[in-house]
């Protein structure tokens, strides 16, 4: 059982909506999907339940969630859980994303006291809690987070919080071979204007590797195959902006430093 089965299950499976997921910014519901005798958990985000935003067109966040998965899968980055569009669920059209069960084995992004920063982490910024405690947010520099950071540059993710990064499995029962590090909540992506806000700035100035350069070249070429998989979800202008971002990143050859003329950390960062 692998990602192709999970995607098929999300597309074709019978869905039972279990209820709303608390503390979500938009209408977000837990779903149980049954397909070929297998039950999977998934997250349903109906477009009708999206809170209006000033800088993103209305009822497009679920489309952007799906575009993120399609781009990740096309580039074989595998950093976004399988996500599909469904129009037959109770609250109308929306995205249906495989639920990632946290493995609990690792904490790739940590909020700790200064003296407790993990040895393999890079500190990003400090903050003070309401009770006056000083804390530091840090993250590791492993391949899993690097892949998410790279993808967020491409997709222009404006909201990569620490809580949007989960190491775990989309498959029932999990298992060592199915564990991966995923980025969830990708609705605030693919804007035509530069909007990257993330807690993963620790890769700044690192040169792109061969696989990253190949991915940038692939997006820069914007084949008909890639464009067709994105055009159901994104406007022509947003797809062209994606292509231009890939070109500029390829020319730079390295992860950029945080710009100094705008906010670069999402709030809240956790």
Which properties best describe this structure?
270 residues; alpha+beta; five-stranded antiparallel sheet; three-stranded antiparallel sheet; 6 helices; 27% helix; 23% strand; globular
Layout: helices, strands, pairs:
Elements (H helix, E strand, L loop, with lengths): L2 H10 L1 E7 L8 E7 L2 E9 L14 H14 L8 E4 L7 E5 L2 E2 L6 E4 L8 E8 L5 E7 L2 H13 L9 E5 L10 E4 L26 H12 L2 H7 L5 H17 L18
Antiparallel strand pairs: 1-2, 2-3, 3-5, 4-5, 6-10, 7-9, 8-9, 10-11
Helix pairs in contact: 4-6
InterPro entries: CHP03843
Protein name: Putative repeat protein (TIGR03843 family)
Describe the structure.
The chain has 270 residues and is of the alpha+beta class. It is built from six helices and eleven strands. The radius of gyration is 18 Å and the shape is globular. The strands form three sheets. Strands 1-2-3-5-4 form a five-stranded antiparallel beta sheet. The mean pLDDT is 93. It has a single domain, classed as Transferase(Phosphotransferase), domain 1 (Orthogonal Bundle). InterPro entries: CHP03843. Residues 251-270 are annotated as: Disordered.
